[in-house]
Task: structure prediction
Amino acid sequence: MSTIAFLNIGMHGRVNPTLPVVAELVRRGHSVTYHTSPAFRAEIESTGATVYLYPGGDQRLPDPPTPVTLMEGLARTAFRLLPTVLTDLRRVGPDLIVHDNACLWGAVAARELEVPAASSFTTFAFNRHVPSPTRGSWNLLAEATARPRSLQGYLRSRWRLRRRFDARKLPLLDIGNVRQPLNLVYTSRAFQPAVEYFDQSYRFVGPSIGARPVDPSFPADRLQDPVLYASLGTVFNADPQLLRTFATALAPLGGTVIVSTGQTDPAALGPLPANVLACRSVPQPDVLARAALFVTHGGMNSVNEATYAGVPMLVVPQGADQPLVARRVVELGAGLSIRTGDAAVEPVHALARRLLDDPRFRAGAATLQVAQRRAGGYRRAADELERYLHAAGPVRRPAPADPRQRR
Ligand code: UDP
Result:
């Protein structure tokens, strides 16, 4: 049995798909460590992994969450965390490191310790045809020009990283796309755009959805069909006005309308129709298993979870890779999309009605559901990691010092 270390950044969307994989590896007898910040401790421990906490408490989300602020935050965090992470990993002695595709310190640690590494993509896989948000582009340049302090901070941290650690092979700019000889992508080949342009190192294992700890505060037994669900995810500051628009537009069409408000206080939405349930966080995969429609920001995990459940979507992208995800949902006939600026009550209501009434959307979502489920999910991800470990062979570790030679 092997020792496998997972390293991740502090975002729910990045952590969630890895949890069922970790639980599966533990079930198969491997020893798994997970290096993370305190907010994720409890849910990771419930998988059976041993948690190692990063120093300095929880990682702040980039504010605003744009490619350049994300790049700056990641490079700075990498430099700050690496000494502790390396000490912890030397103690653990992993045979394999699995890191998020934006977790720079995972990639650097693997090089420093000469341990095989796999990258975990909770986004699409990216290349020339599927541009990552941090890829060098006119948009990135324009944003960097508008945020000179973030750009300077990024360059400074990259320079310090390079001076102190083995940061060779990290992409200069595209740090949301750190690849390894094995790249696990948590969506199916059917949903990945331009899939024919990705080599064998990419394994499209499909949505990784397992049992999550039950939330006893959620009134699952009081929901009335049809359940309609709206969420803008956990990263983008959910605009209370937009969430209110969703609630008002969906209320006449639904039995129960559930609105997840994320970082926004539900009270900020003001008085809502009686059939609307607004709360900061809901057990999303369970809600989707019951839902007839999902109004979403198009976060990759939300969309993977919705397609796994076969639920048609109205996508209202807020940033990052979400416009790309929205386009793919529309292309595959699993939903519709609207820009935030156009998302007033009337149009949202009209599009939601269309999605509910026109059976072609349910059919599109059902076709995608089959492909997403066939991809294999967390069990396939665990198979791929085991195969990779087997092919890589044992890690060569420095021989322990001979105590007789000590003075
Ligand atoms: N999520 C949840 N409850 C909520 C809202 C979100 O469990 O009320 C989870 C959701 O299941 C998904 C993740 O948070 O796994 C959101 O990830 P996504 O990539 O969709 O969006 P992000 O939050 O990263 O923008």
Notes: DSSP finds 14 helices and 13 strands in the chain. Residues 67-92 form the longest helix (26 residues). The first strand starts at residue 3 and ends at 7.
